[in-house]
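Final report, closing paragraph on structural work. Over the funding period we assembled a curated collection of sequence-structure pairs, and we close with a single example.
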Amino acid sequence: MSAGPPSESDSVGNENDPLSRHRATIVYADVANYTGLCALDEDGTHRRLEQYLDVFATSVGAHGGRVHHYAGDAVLASFDSAEAAVVCVVEIQRELLRLNVPLAPTHRVEFRVGINEGSVIPSRGDVYGEDVNIAARLETLCVPGAICVSDRVKDAVDERALGVAVTYLGERSLKNLSRRVAAYLVEMGQPSDQPATGFRSRGGAWLQLPDRPSLAVLPFKCTDDDPTAAQFADGLTMEVMTELVKLSGLFLASDFSTLRYRREAPSAQAVSRELGVRFLLEGTVRRSGERLRVNAQLVDAMNGKGIWAERYENTLDDIFGIQDSITDSIIAALDVRLVSGRRSHITRQSLRNREALRHYYNGWSHLISGSREDLILAQRDFETAAELEPESPLPPSMASWTYWWQGFRVLAHDSKSAFERAEHFAMRAQALEDPNGFASLVMAHVHLLRAEHDQALAAAQHALNLRPSCDVSAAAVANVLNYIGRSEEAIQFAERAIRLTPIAPTIYPAVLASAYYGAGHFEEAVAAAHAIVEQNRDALDAWLVLAAAESALGNGPAARAAMEEVLQQRPDLTLDGFLATQPYAGNERLEELADRLRSAGLH
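Its predicted structure, as stored:
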């Protein structure tokens, strides 16, 4: 149901009377992370903002609307009908998406927009009233480049005609408003008359293609029932990804997203659409005696055509040679710019013992299976490989990662012991000049838990330098930055991790929600945390962020409801116990967090 043009019965006065009212659809738009954009490039950001505000003004006028005022990077406009407002804002967001394509992700000016319909008070060329405030609050629930509408406006959104995806966000308590408002997120799709620059993901979100070659490595398939070949197929997949993740000129979808295709056979177009990438690497593995045969091909999902296809045949002792050939072929085919060094080709030559190689690949196969039992088997395999090849950094690097993952996911009976083993193997790998960055990731976590903030940030940044397309490295940097008080920067790295992993668990969105909270963007923190718990009710970190953020907004009932969820999952959790796990730099933020959690009901 939508609002039509105002009639005499809608109005109780005229614009010169400050008490007069009429019905209108209100649009409120604001730039996401404007302060952070200006910190990176103030002049360029301001020039782009001026250009984009001109787009707003032109489109609003063309659709019969009126811009009432600009406030820095914010715009307030109104329309006589909800349909006109929605069509106009979708058109604007699409045009801004197009203008942002040539820019680096860190420099894109992206608007969040809230739309509400209701009664407004016109005065001196502006509009006021609770329904105007609702539009402004809806904007804070939005993701960059999208629109958030109230239930009054939702019926005006024709998903099929506009090519958008609508997601119900639930009834939300909005700051300083007396009633809850049902909110809907509207995300852009690709207009049919535009060249393809992205895909709609499985969740309905629009994934803009990156500004560099983008690739997903699908799990290599074993063509027979040979368990040895199957283990080598898993190991080959992960080792190829481990090499490619080091290329700064390549956007590589994370293994969190791609490993779900291990037992599926979707089309290239379906995978590309879900992950927001253009190119796919796929292949098969078959063993014949002591030789391994690998077929690999690179596909352009835009047209379904193969870019190259190769067949490789090596002995089991020289599996790394196949990996290097595949990696080099991708680099050449996609014209990918390399990070300096690529010394891991040399480092891997240290892993020549056949039994060490077998255990190393078995470890990868167990690791990607992900269960508690498989992690233990992976640890044993990597440790055995380390014993057989004591001069190679690869086995201890991976052993450290498996122990860290076990402790992080609380899959060990003693997480403290798991973290200690992780540190032991990480230090051993670093002493051997670990080329893959896993040891640095582990040490970033170790240093952070000890509140050794400078060392934690250095280790996380070193891991990201080694692994520029690594989602875990980006999230590690975000996590450390948030704890040391640089939460605005943390937001960008958390968003980077999420984009690399569009089909993922809730770990990275939880880091983003926490960074929003740390930056004082409490409405955004609430929205992000809500999205997490709707996907996973057991996401304890998200419930804690939700409790703290709602408390910061003065929404006592919502904060207490979130804390009730926390205590249902962890009835033994105490305030002091939780705070002891939070390695913030300085006491002020920790004390503020304590006050908010205490008011939410944690004691």
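Residues 34-62 form the longest helix (29 residues). DSSP finds 24 helices and 16 strands in the chain. We thank the funder for supporting this effort.
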